[in-house]
Structure to design on (285 residues):
């Protein structure tokens, strides 16, 4: 039998297996989301969003957890965005090739795959105990910033690397300095890719529970945080707290909270896809 014919059969068989696996995964995901939607959709209303936690499921709401999530997202973005982008620019544009930079690049890439619980232990020791921040929003946000920093750094470097070298040369040829070239040419051209990575990294932080639990986020907080030094809880921890209760009403509340958390995640990922597509259309090299 012809070897080319055998290879074509293998290609078609592999494609078929991949299609079946994809459809199976989508089917399971659709079933799970459909079940959550069926249980929790009717529970979502203004009272549910504005109400404080309660021991009675019909009176319990997600206001404190939602406020804590917004605080964590805001603070994590403030800390990780400038530091991650600046580090990516420095490593890509200013460092010279050496053993030290090679080792640094390998470590940054490896840090992106470290389990989140390790960052939680690091944040507990450094921010919670050494800096005496306790179980505050600030300690949680700094811990999550460590978690997403490697992702932002790697994404920033990849986005800058995708900019054609001819753009740099043209800028230098017109008399621009290195910093002017980076600020006025490289960054605008790569900003779509950078923002995509930042949003995806922050959307990952939205669903993290383990590092925040280690740092000291609470399962029950009877007040909404008003400053970065307040105690807090977040939506994933509130969902875990409700789903562990025996009453069926708390399971309904957990399903409603899952829908809201999924909505936040989908919106952030949708914005990332939009920015990436817009950037690709604008800079179609």
């Amino acid at each position: 039998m012809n070897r080319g014919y055998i290879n074509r059969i293998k290609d078609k068989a592999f494609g078929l297996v991949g299609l079946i696996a994809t459809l199976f995964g989508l089917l399971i995901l659709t079933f799970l989301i459909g079940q959550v939607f069926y249980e929790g959709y009717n529970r979502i209303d203004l009272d549910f969003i504005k109400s404080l936690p309660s021991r009675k499921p019909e009176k319990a709401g997600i206001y404190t957890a939602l406020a804590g999530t917004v605080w964590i997202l805001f603070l994590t973005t403030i800390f990780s965005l400038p530091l991650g982008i600046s580090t990516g620019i420095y490593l890509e544009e200013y460092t010279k090739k050496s053993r030290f930079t090679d080792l640094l690049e390998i470590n940054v890439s490896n840090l992106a795959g470290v389990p989140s619980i390790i960052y939680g232990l690091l944040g507990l020791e450094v921010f919670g105990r050494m800096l005496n921040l306790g179980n505050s929003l600030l300690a949680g946000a700094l811990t999550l910033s460590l978690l997403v920093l490697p992702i932002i750094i790697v994404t920033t470097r990849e986005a800058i690397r995708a900019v054609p070298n001819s753009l740099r040369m043209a800028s230098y040829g017109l008399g621009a300095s290195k910093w002017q070239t980076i600020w006025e040419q490289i960054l605008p051209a790569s900003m779509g890719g950078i923002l995509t990575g930042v949003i995806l990294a922050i959307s990952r932080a939205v669903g993290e529970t383990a590092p925040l639990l280690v740092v000291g986020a609470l399962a029950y907080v009877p007040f909404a945080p008003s400053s970065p030094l307040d105690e807090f809880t977040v939506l994933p921890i509130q969902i875990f707290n409700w789903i562990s209760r025996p009453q069926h009403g708390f399971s309904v509340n957990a399903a409603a909270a899952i829908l809201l958390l999924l909505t936040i995640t989908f919106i952030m990922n949708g914005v990332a896809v939009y920015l990436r597509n817009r950037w690709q259309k604008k800079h179609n090299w």
In short: The CA atoms of residues 47 and 168 lie 55 Å apart. The chain has a mean pLDDT of 86.
